[in-house]
Known about the structure:
By secondary structure, the protein is mostly helical. It is built from 6 helices and no strands.
Amino acid sequence: MASDPTAERILAEITAMLVETVGDEFLLADEVTLKTTFNEDLALESIEFVALAELLQQRYGAAVDLIAFLAEKDMEEILAMTVGDLVFHIAGTAPSAPPASPTPPTTSRPSAPSSTSSASAA
């Protein structure tokens, strides 16, 4: 594994995203390393790359654009791309990315009726 704590954190986050994308019945988290290839080792389909791109953008923001990153590569480079390539791309593009939160952000839920709010304030 990488000796760089940032790379290790990003690798763990990408691994969790991959498990979420393809399902843990197809991918065990301990199978993913920096040398794991997306094409040969993981056999990721294009729709799974799109799902991964969405998760990356949710986590790291617009600075990490997987589709643009792939667009800069020729077909041979895409087929040979490793998880490590993506880890170091993210580390270079979003070096100030905050650590992953233990719980995913939640959407706002409707608040309780205002009578309940004012009763508790009284």
